[in-house]
């Protein structure tokens, strides 16, 4: 993805490189000297006199935002993401993969339909695109600018910003659709508390009860439904500055957007780990739509029992016509 961003950036116009910050501020606010900055520090504003504007070009809140971003969000986010990756690596080295306790049965059960898999992978692709471009916007200059120089960096960051701005609204729409689609399956149940108490069975202990979605999956769903909506709302404020947002509004939206996004990325590392290297057979379900019965009984025993009871009650039921809920997941004929 980084390579694609680099190549795409080379096509963008280089006019940003010709910008002269000192010349522009001089044209906008006249003489910029010690007295100007002293007035700003004392609460004075510099107004853009061009085009009959009353827009404040310089104010102290901008410095406050810069300090929050550079002294708290940037290093805090690095600690959060790096810490989460370190924890997962250490956990994998000490505990290892959560393998199946019994051999595979060879009998497969439908867990995810083609539509559901398409929705999941579309959302995942949009999320990863935003995560990579967002990380580049926050920290990329410390790497790519020093390695490739100002010209490359200017074009690359311009492409990154365009991609991030246009993908954001698409992610917003897709996330709302996904949340609506799986709301019923992620409603909290009493046995979810036991799932957390037993660590989801990840510590080689007894596997806790779980329905179609276990406690961890439900936690991820509700993080997306809360923190994810903060990301969406703040991102739309930044993406469409045409509804009377003030500069202060935009700065605070940027702060909330950065914190919420970094939280979401950090938690997503755990979701990705459990769904791939951390759990045997988990990735197969989202790749093909089917899981082995042994996997279903071990990780989602309550859902497995529901499906089997539904089959016993109506052996001739056609899975293709079953309603779209946890009882509709049927065994695939061999």
Top keywords for this entry?
334 residues; mainly alpha; Fumarate Reductase Cytochrome B subunit; two-stranded antiparallel ribbon; two-stranded antiparallel sheet; 4 strands; 3% strand; disordered C terminus
Give a written overview of the molecule.
Keywords: Cell membrane, Electron transport, Heme, Iron, Membrane, Metal-binding, Oxidoreductase, Signal, Transmembrane, Transmembrane helix, Transport. It comes from Cobetia amphilecti. Belongs to the formate dehydrogenase gamma subunit family. GO terms for molecular function: formate dehydrogenase (NAD+) activity. It is an enzyme of class 1 (oxidoreductase). By secondary structure, the chain is mainly alpha-helical. It has one domain: Fumarate Reductase Cytochrome B subunit (Up-down Bundle). Helices cover 64% and strands 3% of the residues. The chain contains 13 helices and 4 strands. A two-stranded antiparallel ribbon has the order 1-2. Strands 3-4 form a two-stranded antiparallel ribbon. Helix 12 crosses helix 13. The chain is elongated.
